[in-house]
Amino acid sequence: MKPIRLVSGFLTVGLWTLVSRVLGFARDILIAAYLGSGAVAEAFLIAFSLPNMFRRLFAEGAFNMAFVPMFSKKLEGHEDARKFAQDAFVGLAFVTTVFTVVAIVFMPWLVYAMASGFAGDERFDLAVEYGRLAFPYIIFISLTALVSGVLNATGRFLAAAAAPALLNIVFIAAVLIGAAFGRDPSEALGLSLDKILGLRVGDSLALSTPFAGILQLAVVWWAARRAGFTLRIGMPHMTPELKRLAIIAAPAALAGGVVQINLLIGRQVASFFDGAVAWLNYADRLYQLPLGVIGIAVGVVLLPDLSRRLRAGDDTGGRDAFNRATELSLALTVPAAVALMVMPVPLIAALFERGAFSATDTAATALALAVYGLGLPAFVLQKTLQPLFFAREDTRRPFYIALASMAINAALAIGLSPVIGFSAAALGTTLSGWATVALLGWKARAMGDASRFDDRFKSRIWRIVAASLLMGAVLLAGQWLAAPLMAGASRYLVLLALVSVGIVVYFGAGHLFGAFRLQEFRRALRR
After folding, report:
1. Which of 524, 412, 521, 511 lies closest to 466 in space, CA to CA?
2. Which helix (H) or strand (E) holds 324?
3. Which helix (H) or strand (E) holds 42?
4. Which residues are CB-neighbours of 381 under 8 A, at least 6 positions away?
């Protein structure tokens, strides 16, 4: 992939990820307004996290990280990439279908493993019910991820990047439909209107989850068919190529499992504090905006590009692609992290504080958001460092690094929760994220020049940090001056003004400090 296509691919994925995340905010704003941090909200969030957790293990994690480099190299070497994709598609469909049946049967045990603090109250039974309704989503989203890998490897990013937006559109419709039906209370149930409304919205969300997966799969499947890759369901066959895929994917699956255990630890800690599962989820959604737009977009585009360059022996091009991707990622991520740390309360209040979401919920969610903000650059750096390993079909070292990260996260989250409460889960995630970056960077140095930072990156990174800190100081001063206006409807205008000032200050200072040139962003957008 030429540099111009690398940048344009990043922008395509980033733009559509931004659209999806904005729709995700609309979704979460509605969920927060109707459900707040109550039992129905926490039950649904745990239920929805189950297929999402395993999807990252089966598809976006282990399977795709092994599949994309192999598929990309087959394309580069003019081998039979279509047959390989078809065999992988059938194999993944079979595995996820069997797993779904087993998970539905053992759903109470899965919910207990995810949130044992729910045991003995209404949240547990609701989470089991919603989990059984939502879990088939894993089949469709796993296949969507595989087909998206095929499209990304061939340089077609649009459909794969746009598909996630469908989930949020379906969820927004589900909340509104559930709320409409929930406004007709039934005296026979002996429930309050608020209780009926919450249950109806929760039921609607759980039922709509697999439907959203079907729509997402349909979009990418049609795009792959137009690109010449018509993938069909059939009987699975264990071919030599699939055996090699499984061997490469196994360590990545273990690494992905460790990452999911990290998430489990956070949710387990949160489940023992009323409302904490919802607080952490809403904070997670907000910091996931820059992570998704920047880090995930770079990772999606960088992995097939590095795989092709390594196959062609182009170490110099690989180093340049890695450095420019990391440089661009941090130029957009570091200021976002500073903003999340210095103004979490105005952000959360403006986005979520209405209806069932109270000022108490705002304060707790803002605390989690500030802690996650500290780790945002680390989460993005992981997305640029991991392709250095996966492009070489090296999934073992990331696994060992993930084990170390899990131990750090568990020690911090569990050990500190009696002292600082639910925020220990966010702090464990952040600090273990930075530890992971340090270990990945250390191990990557043994890979040669292709994985080293060049002089341009080393010169610019400190200027990026300086411009971000200046922006942070301006935002703090702006909040102090605007404090009397941070109530009622005026808070939205104040927040918009603060964000606008922050953007101007950062890009102006970054240009003056030499962190970047504004023309580079303009050229990238034109491409």
Report:
1. 511
2. helix 315-342
3. helix 39-57
4. 326, 329, 330, 437, 440, 441
How many other C-beta atoms are found inside a 10 Å radius of the C-beta of residue 500? 10
Give the pLDDT confidence score for residue 187 in this predicted structure.
Answer: 41
Query: Hey, what's the torsion of the CAs at 76, 64, 137, 292, to 10 degrees?
Result: -100
DSSP 8-state code for residue 121: S
Longest dimension (CA), the chain: 72
Element (H, E) at 492: helix 490-513
Residues 377-422 pLDDT 10s: 998 888 888 877 877 777 778 878 888 888 999 999 999 999 999 9
Q: Do residues 179 and 196 make contact, with C-beta atoms less than 8 angstroms apart?
A: no
User: Higher pLDDT residue, 35 or 464?
Assistant: 464
Q: What is the pLDDT of residue 62?
A: 60
| Burial status of residue 303 (CB atoms within 10 A of its CB: 0-12, 13-18, 19 or more) | buried
- H/E segment holding residue 454: none
Which tokens hold the place of 434? 């930075």
Percentage of the chain lying above the pLDDT 70 cut: 82
| pLDDT at residue 129, rounded to an integer | 93
Measured CA to CA, the distance from residue 476 to residue 345 in angstroms comes to: 12
Q: What's phi and psi for 143, nearest 5 deg?
A: -65, -35
Contact 428, 261 (CB under 8 A): no
Burial of residue 256 (number of CB atoms within 10 Å: 0-12, 13-18, 19+): buried
Structure tokens given for 379: 């989460």
* Residue 446: other Cβ atoms inside 10 A: 8
User: Angle formed by the axes of helices 193-226 and 39-57, to 10°?
Assistant: 20
* pLDDT for residue 189: 40
Q: DSSP for 174-230?
A: HHHHHHHHHTS--GGGT--HHHHHHHHHHHHHHHHHHHHHHHHHHHHHHHHHHTT--
Residue with tokens 């182009």: 314
Taking each helix axis from N to C end, the angle separating 81-105 and 39-57, rounded to the nearest 10 degrees, works out to 140
Phi, psi (rounded to 5 degrees) for 119: -60, 130
Higher-scoring residue by pLDDT: 346, 192: 346
Chain position carrying tokens 């989250």: 413
Please give the average per-residue pLDDT across 278-286, as a whole number: 87
Beta carbons within 10 angstroms of residue 155's beta carbon: 17
The span from the CA of 295 to the CA of 22, in Å, is 16
CA 500 to chain centre: 25
pTM of the model: 0.72
Q: What is the mean pLDDT of residues 64-75?
A: 74
HSE (side-chain half, CA atoms, 13 Å) at 414:
12
User: Using 50, 70 and 90 to split pLDDT, how confident is the model at 362?
Assistant: very high
Per-residue pLDDT, 188: 37
